[in-house]
Each structure stands twice: as C-alpha cells, then as structure tokens.
Specification:
With 249 residues, the protein is mostly helical. The protein has one domain. It has helices at residues 2-55, 64-81, 96-118, 120-124, 139-165, 170-184, 187-192, 194-217, 221-239, 242-248. Helix 6 packs antiparallel against helix 8 (194-217).
C-alpha cells in the first residue's frame, strides 16, 4: 500500500514538473514571439522606407546624405526600442576590432580610388550593360553603404540577442540564420539574374554561418561582422565588373 502511495505521489510530482517546464517554456516563447513580431514590423518598415526614398529619387549616389541619415535614424530607433537586449555587444572594450574596421574602410576607399583612377574610363565606356550604383565606383556609395551595413548589423545583433535569451544552442542559431539569410536573398535571383544572384545567395549562406558564431563567441564580434559585411559589398562591386573590363581590354 505504501509502495502504491509512493508511486502515485511520484507520478503526481512528475506531472507537476511537466506542467512547470511547460509553463517556463511558454514564458520564454511568448516574449520571443512578441519581440519577433515587433522586429519583423521594424524590418519591413525599414525596407519600406528605403523604397519610398527611392521613389522620391534618393539613393546611394543621388541625395546620398538623406539616404545615409535615414539609415542612421533607423539604427538609433531600433537601439532605443530594444536597448535592454543589446547586452551581448557590450562586452569588455577592445581597440583591436575597431582598428580592424578602420583598416577595412580605408582599404575600401583606397581600392575605389585606384579603380576610379585606372579603370574609370574603361567602365564608363562599357557598352551594352547598365552600370548600377554598386559598380559605379562612387565615394557617395561607399559612405552610404557604411550606414546601410550599420542598420543591417543592428537588426542582426538584435535577432541573435533574442535567440540567446531564449537559450538557443549555437548549432540551432547558425541553422536559423542560414535559413533566414538564404530566404531573404532569394529575391536577388529575380533582381540580378542567375549568375550574380547565385553569387549573393551563396555568400549569404556563408554569412549565416559566420555571423552568429563571431557575434556570440568573440569580444566585440559585431565590429568584425560589420567589417566583413562592408568589405564584402565593396569588393563585390568591383568583382562583378571584372568580366566586362577584360572584354573591353
């Protein structure tokens, strides 16, 4: 009889434990879902604002100060709204990643100066292709891109922070970002074609692996991911032109 009572009691304890775990899971899940909805609202709102600026003629090369100011404003708004969730970026200060970032930016401007000096006339004389802002070898593009990468990295760091707070493992975090980055870059197949679209799509998958690991594991990791992100776009603008330049030569 005592064994049965003990067994019954044990089952009751297990049931209580299961209910407790379920409630704790819902406590974590509910705020995460709410935060994700707000994140998505701001994300799509950000891109909606960008296309609205485009509609009125502002871009990376035309009215670039307005475009840059818009990106900066969005970054500030996101940081203020979610200021309590950016704890993962406020680790022990280190000058090394900022020196690395400065080096990347200086190298980018130097590269574009060289390209503009020696390849500008060739690029401008290429017939049969439409030269976009990315390939225009414009300093205004380089400046605006800094602020665009800032706002993108702000959203990325915030999203990683949400998942860390939800106790997501690094493996699941990386898988989530591979799917997320890959998903949002599918549109480039439509806008840029198979070749260039594939280049950006597969690069986004690599970023989905690297960014969560670097931001979570390394001190001031977001500065490194910012540098990589910016350097990638700057170099891509020139890499895309290489086949056309060789054809012209």
């Amino acid at each position: 009889m005592q064994k049965q009572v003990r067994k019954k009691k044990s089952n009751q304890e297990k049931l209580q434990e299961a209910v407790f775990i379920k409630n704790k899971y819902l406590e974590v899940k509910k705020p995460l879902v709410e935060k994700m909805f707000l994140w998505l609202f701001l994300w799509f709102g950000f891109w909606g604002g960008y296309y609205l600026l485009n509609f009125f003629g502002f871009s990376y090369t035309k009215g670039f100060i307005i475009t840059s100011a818009y990106y900066l404003l969005v970054s500030i708004i996101v940081i203020l709204v979610f200021r309590k969730h950016f704890y993962i970026v406020f680790k022990e200060f280190s000058a090394i990643p900022f020196v690395f970032l400065g080096g990347i930016i200086l190298a980018s401007f130097a590269t574009y100066w060289f390209a503009n000096l020696y390849l500008g006339s060739i690029i401008n004389s290429i017939a049969g292709i439409s030269i976009g802002e990315l390939e225009s070898i414009s300093y205004s593009y380089l400046i605006t891109k800094i602020f665009e990468i800032l706002v993108q990295q702000t959203f990325i760091v915030l999203l990683i922070s949400f998942y860390i707070e939800a106790k997501m493992s690094l493996k699941k975090l990386v898988l989530t970002f591979i799917l997320f980055f890959g998903g949002i870059h599918l549109v480039v197949f439509y806008t840029e074609g198979i070749l260039i679209g594939g280049y950006y799509f597969f690069s986004s998958l690599i970023a989905g692996i690297l960014f969560p690991i670097i931001i979570k594991k390394y001190n001031c990791g977001f500065i490194y991911t910012f540098s990589i992100h910016y350097g990638f776009y700057v170099l891509s603008g020139l890499i895309i032109l290489i086949p056309y330049i060789f054809r012209k030569l």
